[in-house]
Design goal:
The complex is a heterodimer of chains A (111) and B (115).
Chain A: E1 4-7, E2 10-14, E3 19-25, E4 32-38, E5 44-51, E6 56-59, E7 62-67, E8 72-77, E9 86-93, E10 99-101, E11 105-110
Parallel strand pairs in A: 2-11
Antiparallel strand pairs in A: 1-3, 3-8, 4-5, 4-9, 6-7, 7-8, 9-10, 9-11
Chain B: E1 5-7, E2 10-13, E3 19-24, E4 31-37, E5 44-50, E6 53-56, E7 65-68, E8 75-79, E9 88-95, E10 105-106, E11 110-114
Parallel strand pairs in B: 2-11
Antiparallel strand pairs in B: 1-3, 3-8, 4-5, 4-9, 5-6, 7-8, 9-10, 9-11
The chains are: A mainly beta (111), B mainly beta (115).
């Protein structure tokens, strides 16, 4: 049974810092991995999607890496801003399109 | 392009009452998901549809939860009777096709409070 774990559960950093969020999964037979952002009281917004054959994806200040063999992914946020404050969720997809989510990392960026 | 629409946004009911949530996916999206997100946790899949057929409902508590997508477009999730532990946000999501390599699109969710 696939399990997804995110560390840390919460993170507080001053504005301008670079930071890394971690995601690990137990079964390496994944179809893809996605990172989502969730603002309080809102739905999920997809940030980056990495196919199982890819190693990383970049979008603006965000960079996500995938090491399928070790069951790990990281989300790197450069030059953090207060607007980046949100919960970040990692999810892996199996061949049937089913997404298994981690519990999320709650990020707070202080001005 | 319109996003995934969900209603109602908020619902408060007493235990043992019933409630229904509605979802209209992005036009043309064949695959639709219902997720349950309890406060402080990641979303958990309840049911997955491909057009009007069920692909996966293994984690749906079928004694009290039901869902349908009769015409392969919009979908309804029902809880009857509700329990305190059903308090959560119910998220609907869609993608164009099963195994599509694109991203999953989520609605804003329906927040249920059971008293």
């Amino acid at each position: 049974k696939q399990e997804v774990t995110q560390i840390p559960a919460a993170l507080s950093v001053p504005e301008g810092e670079n930071l890394v969020l971690n995601c690990s999964f137990t079964d390496s037979a994944i179809y893809n991995l996605q990172w989502f952002r969730q603002d309080p009281g809102k739905g999920l917004t997809s940030l980056l999607l990495i196919q199982s054959s890819q190693r990383e994806q970049t979008s603006g200040r965000l960079n996500a890496s995938l090491d399928k063999s070790s069951g790990r992914s990281t989300l790197y946020i450069a030059a953090s801003q207060p607007g980046d404050s949100a919960t970040y969720l990692c999810a892996v997809s199996d061949q049937g399109g089913k997404l298994i989510f981690g519990q999320g990392t709650e990020l707070s960026v202080k001005p | 392009e319109a996003g995934v629409a969900q209603s109602p946004r908020y619902k408060i009911i007493e235990k043992r009452q019933s409630v229904a949530f509605w979802c209209n996916p992005i036009s043309g999206h064949a695959t639709l998901y219902w997720y349950q997100q309890i406060l402080g946790q990641g979303p958990k899949l309840l049911i997955q549809f491909q057009n009007n057929g069920v692909v996966d409902d293994s984690q749906l508590p079928k004694d009290r939860f039901s869902a349908e997508r009769l015409k392969g477009v919009d979908s309804t999730l029902k809880i009857q009777p509700a329990k305190l532990e059903d308090s959560a946000v119910y998220l609907c999501a869609s993608i164009p096709e099963l195994r599509d390599t694109g991203e999953l699109f989520f609605g804003e969710g329906s927040r249920l409070t059971v008293l």
